[in-house]
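@channel sequence for tomorrow's demo:
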Amino acid sequence: MGKEELIELIKRLLKTDIDLKFLLKLDQAEMEILLVQIRHRIGQDENKSI
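structure tokens (generated this afternoon):
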């Protein structure tokens, strides 16, 4: 998956349409780590509300 696709996934997870192109400065592995951490955090928040 390319960096642009990862940015689009992050934008959807964050439910935002702000410009996140600054994330292109991160390397592929860093972007993937960020995505995993966002998914993990969102999952924790969803479990708290149940």
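heads up for whoever presents: The mean pLDDT is 90.
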